[in-house]
Amino acid sequence: MPVSQTQHTQHSPGAQAFDVRRLSPHIGGEVTGLDLAQPLAPETFAALRKAWLEHQVLVFRDQKLSDDDQVRFARYFGTPIGSRSMQQANPHVMLISNIRENGQVIGQLPDGELQFHADSVFLEKPLMGAILHSVEVPASGGNTMFASTYAAYDALSREDKRRLSGLTAVNAFDYATQVRTGRFDTSKGPHRTHPVIRTHPETGRKGIFVNRLMTQHIVGLPLAESDALLPRLWELCERPAHIYEHVWRVGDVLMWDNRCTQHARTDFPEGERRLLRRVGIEGDKPY
Description:
This protein has 287 residues and is an alpha+beta fold. It has six helices and 20 strands. It has helices spanning 42-55, 67-75, 149-154, 158-164, 175-181, 223-237, and strands spanning 6-9, 18-22, 29-32, 57-60, 80-81, 94-97, 100-101, 104-105, 114-117, 129-136, 144-148, 168-172, 191-195, 197-199, 206-208, 215-218, 243-246, 253-257, 261-265, 275-281. The strands form five sheets. Strands 1, 2, 3, 4, 5, 6, 10, 18 and 20 form a nine-stranded mixed β-sheet that branches. The protein is globular. 41% of the residues are buried.
């Protein structure tokens, strides 16, 4: 389907109609015609979920959502999950911000760029997805790039697909040791073993499920072999042709399927304020 093509979604009387414009060849769709602060009719939600599964990332511009509106929207898709390490006024909301009050950062992931990753893969049940709403954005930078792990898997050779089938990898949460030594220390934070190739539980499609930020090693392979293989898989996921880069505007709502995407953040000027609200959606155990 050409990138510029728009899909027109029809509904029964009483439901809201919306359009979806494809944003890149492999990933991303912009939805128009919906006010997410309003409840969705069942037929509308069913069509919206179908669009989400197809496009993997959905973008909604010019939205005005309260915390409660955002949480309510997340509940259509599953159980909302907020911050695991910082207390917010609404327990289902995680602030992503570099804003400091009384010398303390009010949110998480405050400054600089972030490498490609899928959220919470160091847990037994990584997030199904997440919904991010922009409140303040810098004049430039702080873009979020989304990579389709479906497209990355499809680009593998038949031999690589056979070789990777059944392999698992350790994913860890230990950024400090990784930055200092290039290795993780799994004794210092949560870690879980997940398939290298994940099957999406709703679409049945396969995607690469290792990432540059959190994957430590492939189980059962000699370290040198694992160290040579993982960067090949990361680079395949991060191919420009497999990526949609989102330039934020205030009022954007963006939701991604964490089961078949990875995302990263570009750097932005120090001292420029950035504030986004994230609501995660509880996931299941990858297979």
